[in-house]
Amino acid sequence: MSSSPVAARPARTPAPRTPGTPGTGGRPPRWVVAVLVANLVAQVGIVVTGGAVRLTASGLGCPTWPECSAGSYTPVYTPEMGVHAAIEFGNRLLTGVVTLTALAALAAVARLVLTGRRPAGLLPLAAAPLVGVVLQALIGGITVLTQLHPATVATHFLVSMALVAASTVLLLRVREGADGTPRPLVPRAPRVVARSAGAVLGAVLVLGTVVTGSGPHSGDAEHPVRLGFDTEVVSRLHADAVVLLLVLVVALAVLLRRTGAPRRPRRRTAALLVVLLAQGVLGWVQYATGLPEALVAGHMLGAALGVVATTALLLSLRERLPATPA
Fold first, then answer.
1. What are the tens digits of pLDDT across the range 3-44?
2. Greatest distance between any 2 Cα atoms in the chain
3. pLDDT exceeds 80 at position 1
4. What is one term from the GO cellular component aspect held by the record (predicted)?
5. CA 304, CA 60: separation in Å to the nearest integer?
6. Tens digits of per-residue pLDDT, 262-303?
7. Pair (217, 293) in one structural domain
8. 304 with 210, same domain?
9. Among 4, 156, 178, 245, which residue carries the largest CB count within 10 Å?
10. Residues linked to residue 69 through DSSP beta bridges, in sequence order
């Protein structure tokens, strides 16, 4: 019996490079990598702290925006608000940290571009986290003004996931360095499966917000607004999407092994599989135990890590060679 086209097609191997110079500009300085890692960590961290606001029912601890309470940008203690105002105000302050890391990331990449060590095409990507912070501030304001409507809360979360993905791409592209046309490192079949997994991950995230918007953690203990869907039905849909995602990632791992893919995409596929399995177990436990706050917060962290792992995997399926001089 003849082998399948996928198995028979050899994986492409990268062109040889001079040690220590992975791209046209060489390795970026360590301080640049540290800044970009800090930006990514901040983007993931604000997802977790934002979840803490919702899980402690502190979403309206600051009932107005951009002020925290009428006539004051800082919390005004009242017995009714209690600690909720401090929690919500603390999350707003953390937005300042995210802003600073986003500014630092843009400045670091701009310096590399100005010194000719990275292509100018990276500047829009470097600006994305900063633009995202401004967008998130506006969405956050709308969320407060709409009394934490689940649709605006979901938008807030999904934009955060997009910023986590963009920050991951920025970090890896700067480390990559080269500005030539991307060249696939693996055959078409695993690339299609990987892209399908990325699309299904997007569906998993959207369905997760539907589950959250229909469940008990509204972010406001007094006047919760919910989507009204049957939580059991949407939870099952969410779980089914997760199972499909796991199947695709396992299939990808098999294809990469059969086609002799390079070590990096195989390692990143394994890392994604570990994250997804942990998320699946955590999701099942939190559902079975009535959605305790600590497990829900861990699930949100896992979602962000899943986005990081998926983005890194997709980028590992190709390489960029130095641009050929005209």
1. 444 444 444 444 444 333 334 567 899 999 999 999 999 999
2. 78
3. no
4. membrane
5. 24
6. 999 999 999 999 999 998 888 888 777 776 777 878 888 999
7. yes
8. yes
9. 245
10. 72
Q: Beta-carbon neighbour count of residue 162 at 10 Å?
A: 16
Return phi, psi of residue 182, to 5°: -60, 140
Q: From residue 79, give the alpha-carbon distance in Å to each of 65, 70, 71, 218.
A: 21, 16, 18, 21
Q: What is the DSSP letter of 185?
A: S
Of 146, 177, 208, the residue that ends a domain is 177
Quick check: is 307 in a domain? yes
In the numeric block, the tokens 């990808």 are attached to 252
Sign of CA dihedral 62, 68, 70, 72: positive
Tell me what pLDDT residue 18 has. 36
For the chain, give the number of residues: 326
- Displacement of CA 231 from its chain's centroid (Å): 25
Q: What is the pTM of this model?
A: 0.82
Closest CA to 107 of 21, 25, 174, 177: 174
Indicate whether 9 belongs to any domain.
Answer: no
d(CA 92, CA 63): 12
**Residue 183 dihedral angles phi and psi, to the nearest 5°:** -125, 130
Give me the mean pLDDT over the 235-242 stretch. 91
In a domain, 240, yes or no: yes
Instruction: Report residue 323 as tokens.
Output: 């641009």
**Full domain range(s) for residue 43:** 29-177
Nearest Cα neighbor of 317 from 269, 276, 246, 277 is 269
Domain C-terminal end among 156, 177, 198: 177
| For the chain, counts of helices (H) and of strands (E) | 9, 2
Residues in a beta bridge with 182: 320
Q: What are the beta bridge partners of residue 320?
A: 182
Domain-located, residue 6: no
